[in-house]
User: Fold this.
Amino acid sequence: MAKEVQIIGLETIPDIKAGDDLAKIIVEAARREGVGIEDGDIIVITHKIVSKSLGLVFDLNKIEPSDRAREIAKRTRKMPEFVELILREARRIVKIRPPYIITETRFGHICLNAGIDRSNVCGDPRVCAALPRDPDREARKLREALEKLTGKKLAVIISDTYSRPHRYAQIDMAIGVSGMKPVKDYKRKVDAYGYRLRFKMQAVADEIAGAAELVIGQTTEKIPVAIIRGYSFEPDEEASARQLSLIELGYRDIFEGIKLTPKSNG
Assistant:
């Protein structure tokens, strides 16, 4: 029998507001759409609705920029209020190369503008969503709530869209992981021809996030959650998306002097 993996987008998720119970909303949408939630499902959730539920949506009209924000804004031709929000949300500024502000997030990703985004928020260009401060923690909380509601054993991935060094266009990647090992290690295993692998590792959490984006989309789809069904993942109660971050793994020095490809914020 051929292997089969399904990608099921949930199309009836309503607009999310601060304080909404995301786990309950997801379970109700899956039931309403007749797909349910089964043992071994991986629930991929875009960071945008997680951020909305956490109240991490900001009106730039209500932000007072600092002197530093005004200076950077002048150099990069950005709104001072937007730059101020970047300074508040970033762990550090990696480099300013006008018009780009390259940052490190609180959880070790290198991207533009601390990942702050205007797309798929509300349509007002002065209203932005910031990234969850700890996506792994949010993924774990959502998984535990989903498992409690369904009685099923699940994994959860929180995804966001990033560029990749030396590659054109963007792809969704995992910024939060719970319940599954994010990396599949093939080192020392033997391939189909008897060769023993030396370095092969597969970023399965990123691949699953990218696959989910095929149904989630980026514009008018309004599908912020996808169920991946049929992929046999390796369970891990201690899993973390930090296992995919070279910075979090202690390789911060390799970024010194390297040209970075920043996240594209739509």
Summary: The chain has six helices and 13 strands. The longest strand covers residues 167-180. The two ends are 41 Å apart (CA to CA). The longest helix spans residues 135-150.
